[in-house]
Amino acid sequence: MVDKPVVDLDNYREPEQLEVMQQIQKDGVCPFCMDEFTKHQTEETLFDGKYWLLTYNRWPYKNTKVHLLAIYKEHAEHILEVEPAAGAELIEVFQWASTHFTVPGGGFVMRFGDTNYSAGSVQHLHAQFIQPDIDAATYEPVRVKLGKSRKE
Ligand SMILES: [Zn+2]
User: For a Cys-Cys bond, which of 61, 76, 116, 151 suits 125, CB 3.0-4.6 Å?
Assistant: First the structure.
């Protein structure tokens, strides 16, 4: 159990994701803490390091050919809570992904902290690794949002 909400329902992208997030909020659990995550994990573990677990994003962004999530294996919400050695391992994880998926280029992003600023859906620290699908028929550039949308 966690003492405060760890999902931000304002920042969901897919209807099924909202349902899952509502259930998480009701249960009062952190979906990315390893006990909880492995209980409900739907996607394969690709890399299991000391600090990071790499898996597919259950809800990949549109126009991505590769969209992976590296989840920090301890509960942390702010970059200040992360061991610097985890940064080195994260590069190793993404190098593995680049080789495994033969990624010619792309990007990675890690939101952190207050979700009003990060626009993150899950506060538990995770990094996203993305290769855009530039050959898709409906291709548009992949954009990453930082900062919550203004309420109308
Ligand atoms: Zn957690």
Answer: 76
